[in-house]
């Protein structure tokens, strides 16, 4: 089925681009980290991600606008598909991850 394999390719491309451009701040799985002011990206619908990114980029030249300006449009579309494909984690898993992060920073 051509449509499915196009989507898979976009997700695969996006997974790589996400690690390259976004994971440094947003974490490997796009999970929230309130301690660092990081909102959750995993599970975002494509339209919502695009809307939020253009809202962020409309602000004073910030990190997101600079990233988006450098980025191949197919990478951006792939990132959107990749994030939409990630299931939002259960709240208990988010709390575990945050506790782990805080421990690592304390050391
Ligand atoms: C240098 C750190 C950093 C990088 C790199 C980064 N972000 Fe962010 N992002 C943040 C922070 C911090 C916020 C919270 C809002 C703010 O402070 O601008 C945010 C907010 C967002 C939001 C808004 C979510 C919401 O719920 O409002 C989206 C969408 C987003 N980032 C997507 C991305 C994507 C996609 C990439 C990679 C292309 C990326 N970000 C790269 C730090 C980063």
Q: Care to give the gist of this entry?
A:
The protein is mostly helical and 107 residues long. It contains 6 helices and no strands. The longest helix has 20 residues, at 2-21.
Topology at a glance:
Layout: H1 2-21, H2 23-26, H3 46-58, H4 63-70, H5 73-85, H6 91-106
This protein binds heme C.
Q: Radius of gyration, Cα only, in angstroms?
A: 15 Å
Shape estimate: globular
| Name of the top-level CATH class | Mainly Alpha
Low-confidence stretches: none
Compute the number of strand runs. Answer: 0
Q: Summarize the amount of helix as a percent range.
A: 55-70%
**Which homologous superfamily in CATH is the superfamily?**
Cytochrome c-like domain
- The number of distinct structural domains comes to 1
**Category from helices, strands and their pairing:** mainly alpha
Continuous helix count: 6
Distance between the termini: 50 Å
């Amino acid at each position: 089925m051509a449509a499915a394999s196009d989507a898979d390719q976009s997700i695969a491309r996006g997974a790589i681009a996400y690690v390259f451009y976004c994971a440094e701040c947003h974490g490997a799985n796009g999970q929230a980290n309130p301690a660092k002011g990081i909102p959750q990206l995993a599970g975002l619908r494509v339209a919502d991600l695009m809307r939020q990114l253009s809202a962020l980029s409309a602000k004073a030249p910030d990190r997101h606008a600079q990233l988006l300006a450098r980025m191949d449009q197919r990478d951006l579309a792939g990132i959107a598909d990749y994030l939409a494909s990630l299931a939002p984690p259960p709240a208990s898993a988010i709390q575990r991850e945050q506790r782990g992060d805080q421990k690592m920073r304390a050391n």
